[in-house]
Amino acid sequence: MFLRKVTLFLIITIIVSFSIRTFGTLFPQIFKNILIVKATILIHSIFILSHLIFWILFYREYISKKKPSLKTICIFVIISSFSVSAIYLKKLPFVFGLNTHIPLFLLNPYFDALVPLISSAIHLVFFVSFKRSLKIDEFPSLSRPILSIIVGNGIFICLHLIVLLNFISRDRFEWLEHMPRVIAVSTVPIIILAVCFMLYFYYQFYCYLNSSRNIEKSST
User: Fold this and answer.
1) Residue 97, by phi and psi: left (phi above 0), alpha (psi -120 to 50) or beta?
2) Are the CB atoms for 177 and 24 separated by under 8 Å?
3) How many of the other CB atoms lie within 10 Å of CB of 209?
4) Which residues does 2 contact at the CB level (< 8 Å), separation at least 6?
5) pLDDT tens readout for residues 25-81
């Protein structure tokens, strides 16, 4: 099952990517080194791609087989994840020193400000639906992890709202780490908390896939 391997890889990339971003927010002087900037972009791009691949495999190997009623909303999650991927992958040509034409809509700051917020909202709707669809054999293993990622998504929605409101009020797009120092640093613990909530789901889901696989083997 590729889904289980991708889930583990996603967990690793989440930890590495957000650790670097957190360290960079607290010590922004490290980004004076262009190689560190490029490495950070590359690592975060790998995380974003692994997240997208996770959802594609999650749809194909789990939702399609066990939760057909969630197929439509899961497709919306994949589309929104792909849209978020475009925000970060457009920076890759800079990493490799390439001069690539980027579609104008990807350069629009409204795209960067709105798409992550919409994506988090769609993820939230999915996980609420996922929790409601749990069967008796799934409930003990997945109920609390799903609730955990619902909380994590809710926190990220609030953070994305801060980014959007800041953009509307100042007419200039900035990620949280690029905002005034007080805001950037004060949101670090909140981001760490949200990431921990999400990691808890992915880890428990990874364990659940492993236990499900063992059960299937023992019954054959």
Assistant:
1) left
2) yes
3) 19
4) 57, 61
5) 999 999 999 999 999 999 999 999 999 999 999 999 999 999 999 999 999 999 999
Q: What is the pLDDT of residues 154-185, one digit of tens each?
A: 999 999 999 999 999 988 889 898 898 899 99
Distance CA 103, CA 82 (A): 15
- The answer to whether 122 touches 83, Cβ cutoff 8 Å, is no
d(CA 177, CA 93) in angstroms, rounded, equals: 22
58: part of which helix (H) or strand (E)?
Answer: none
**pTM for this predicted structure:** 0.91
User: What's the chain's Rg over C-alpha atoms?
Assistant: 18
Query: Which residue stretches of 97-172 are H helix?
Result: 104-107, 109-132, 139-170
Residue 159 near residue 176 (C-beta atoms within 8 A): yes
- Segment holding 194, helix H or strand E: helix 188-219
Owner of token pair 């104008």:
104
Alpha carbon distances (Å) from 198 to 11, 78, 102, 142, 175: 9, 17, 31, 13, 20
**If we measure between CA atoms, which residue out of 81, 15, 12, 14 comes closest to residue 53?**
81
Res. 215: pLDDT tops 60 = no
